[in-house]
Amino acid sequence: MVVESTNLISDVKARAWSETYLGGSPETERLAFDRLARDIMRVQLRNRKVASAHGVPHAIGRALHVKATLAVEDAELKFLDLPPELRVGFAQPGARYPVAVRFSNASGTAKPDTSPDLRGVALRITVSPDEQHDLLATNYPVSHARDAYQFVRFATATAGDGPSRVARLIRLAATTGPTETLRMIGNVQAGRSSKVFSVANETYWSRGAITWGDDLAVRYLLRPAPGTPPGPEPAVHDPDYLSHEAARRLAAGDIRFELCIQRFRDETSTPIEDAAVEWLERAAPAEPIAVLTIPARPAVEVNALDGMNFNPWNTTDSFRPLGNLNRVRKAAYDASAAHRHQLRWQTETPPRNVVIGRAVGSAFRLVNRFVPWHRLSTRLGLLNLDALRQVLRQSNLIDTEPREAPPTARPVPAPPDETARVRRTFDGTSNDLSEPRMGSVGSAFGRNLKPDYRPDLFDEPNPIVVSRELLHRETFKPATSLNLLAAAWIQFQVHDWVNHARHPLGKNDIVVPLPPDAPRWSNTAGGPPESEMRIAGNISLGVAPDGTERLFANAASHWWDGSELYGGDKASADALREGAKLRLTDAGYLPQDVNGFELTGFNESWWLGLSGLHTLFAREHNVLCDELRAHYRGWSDDRVYHTARLIVAALIAKIHTVEWTPAILATEVIDLGLKSNWNGPPAHDWLTRLGMWAVDQHAAVGIPSTEPDHHGVPYSLTEDFVTVYRMHPLLPDDYQYRDHRTGEDLGHRDFLQIQGSAADDELRSIGLENMLYSFGRSHPGAITLHNYPRSLQAFERNGERIDLSVVDLVRTRRRGVPRYNDFRAGLHRPRIKHWEELCTDPESVRRLRSVYRSIDEVDTMVGLFAEPPPDGFAFSDTAFRVFILMASRRLQSDRFLTADFRPEIYSPFGLDWIAGNGMTSVIQRHCPDLAALLPRDVSAFAPWRPVQPR
């Protein structure tokens, strides 16, 4: 399906040419081009394999045109006396511009010049530091491929060597058709069969058209200037004869070419979209417009431009490339260049993983109809989860970030900032160096499920009624397998990951009418009672025609970068520093701001648990600074600070992966799976190692030992991820302080007494040791119905008085997260048909029936709380499915936790520190008196041991 370009002007006579989009729209075409770009990166991997086949490892090269035959940086392009209609932009009569020129063979491997091959040329015309124009051409007048699909599929099929190449050609014939496949092979063979005597004697044609001003469309070609002498007979025993001939020619004098254009005539003789149709001279005569001069020189450096990345979209709007074969080149060439320079990675899944993985996945889909994964044996359960994660990666990663479609012209992209290669930026930019804004502050939340906006259900049933009947804590239900640090920890992490920016109350408020039997509500601290609850609206990136907000940005970075400690911008981070260290008082506590809040990277929704963890890890940063200075005496403050920051962020990620998660999902299969995520399977566990080797190479070695992999979708955290981390029932309403030396009761507080600006006073009053011990001896709440903290149903935040349970419901609905049954089905679980399938408690079932008109209207959060979790789990299997997808993704996408998790970035000492430490050792280091009270052989998030009576 194609659709006509919206770039057409209304006057068809003035512009007779047009563009069409593959798939029916620019956005559909863009998605297809993204897939094709990844295919080009696979071509590079196959080419590297062929090039390295004789025992000499090769780096990743260009997908095509790998071997340069001549390269110069000081050529010149001089325009001739142009007719008025061709005087566009930089193309002016007599204008001269410096040009970099690279001639090359067309193959993806560096074959001898004597091998049959096409030849190519790439020009970069520099008009100014902000304006360049890349022209690319090949010595055959027509492309073998009609469109982008054919081009990439043919490149993929013909890359590499051996029997697999034959199989790929057979698949090409099956997808493209035998006739088209034979036509492409014949076209390429015809181009390669021509004997090339000299790069200076060849004519090179563009592989598509470009605009020339507002109305003209042209193809261009580069042909030898009149009087160019012919080349000698090729030296059959010289693999580099083209380079040697060019060097001899330049030693004797200049090489000149004419730059010519051919004008569009009509869609039949000079088509825009079909690149396989030659623009014949009789329909479109070649018109010389400029002369390219390569000046004489005594010697030539053939590889002088090997680091340069040519792309026809390095130009201006006046010379924009046309046609889908040109449009795909922006994404494909950018991906290829980034892959070549190790700014982007492509993971080639081993064939065994593909074949065995499919078989294992099919088997488990059958098994799971009768037995859920958590009732299988440990190793079968682990394989089952891995198979499920593969399904989720294929089906449940949805990019929402507005992307460029169709492609637009641009200046030559600047190279990556060298400092960003070796340290995290504060706003999350340049983690992916090929797409610097990916995952940064301001990037959109993605999706795991297609959003379902139901304005008719935004207030149905009334969220206040839902909260009162199903969430309100009547009696505290503890999670006895955990201690209260587990509750503080997850909020500590969520503040690093996600933050929806809000309007101030009074601007774009969400209004929730109070039920008739509800008391009036004050929306501001000390404000008047009102008949409605007003909730601060989120700041959205997009609004649908019906007024529904559809897209939201993250005010934090999406990366696991410790931003809750260090801040999300340089100014904030600098304000928290003193030299390399974080600012602490003489007693080792965070300083306060003028409002009494502790100064740290993120101090909203602040309470004693966060105060303690922020203080603990600020101390950890400062100890690391001392250690790094002792090991690397010549380092600057900046290097010490940023290296310590990297180490702390990675240590936090490790603690969350191998300690917190196995504590809150306390089963053997999760413990083994999450530790394998970080370290790979245990060395002695050959059965698990064999299973992971067979189905998942990442899990077989541990994610930090792999390369970044976004699994085909640009990285972001998702609205669905935010939803499953609504774990406020973990927070108790009442807190008991205990003395870590005697076990003595030091007093009781309710949540409102230890939150906001009171948190710092409380921490300093009882001390970090007593705070950690008190939390270690207390239990969080269970994540279930009727256990939402009463304190959070009426508390003040930034002058607002809010019921957070209502806020959670309202925000989930208005962000288009599907209701529970659709959410469950979208994560590949069977829909529930009866209320008793949702919840085993008869009273809760009765209340659910009374609140909701049908099972399909149950709120996502309510359903996740109601669903009976697997044995050992603190939350539901449905929520867990988002978790297993996104938990590994947070590691796998992050350059600093994969390819750059190495001693050159972290220092050898830093990697040893991360490997040798965890939550227990961090607590022991800063609070050594607690060593005897921490749990033995289990996570520090398990209940601590009591003080033994003296």
UniProtKB/TrEMBL annotation:
Q: Where is the Catalase core domain?
A: 90-158
According to UniProt, the name of this protein is Peroxidase family protein
* SUPFAM superfamilies from the UniProt entry: Heme-dependent catalase-like, Heme-dependent peroxidases
- Give the cofactors, semicolon-separated: Ca(2+)
Q: Does the keyword Lipid biosynthesis feature in the UniProt annotation?
A: yes
The entry's keywords? Dioxygenase, Fatty acid biosynthesis, Fatty acid metabolism, Heme, Iron, Lipid biosynthesis, Lipid metabolism, Metal-binding, Oxidoreductase, Oxylipin biosynthesis, Peroxidase, Plant defense
UniProt KW Lipid biosynthesis keyword:
yes
Which InterPro entries does this chain map to? A_dioxygenase (IPR034815), Catalase_core (IPR011614), Catalase_sf (IPR020835), Haem_peroxidase_animal (IPR019791), Haem_peroxidase_sf (IPR010255), Haem_peroxidase_sf_animal (IPR037120), Oxylipin_biosynth_metab (IPR050783)
What lineage is this protein's organism placed in? Bacteria, Bacillati, Actinomycetota, Actinomycetes, Micromonosporales
- Segment Disordered: which positions? 399-421, 427-446
Quote any Pfam family the record assigns.
An_peroxidase
Give the top-rank taxon of the lineage listed in the UniProt record for this protein: Bacteria
Named from the GO MF annotations, one term is:
peroxidase activity
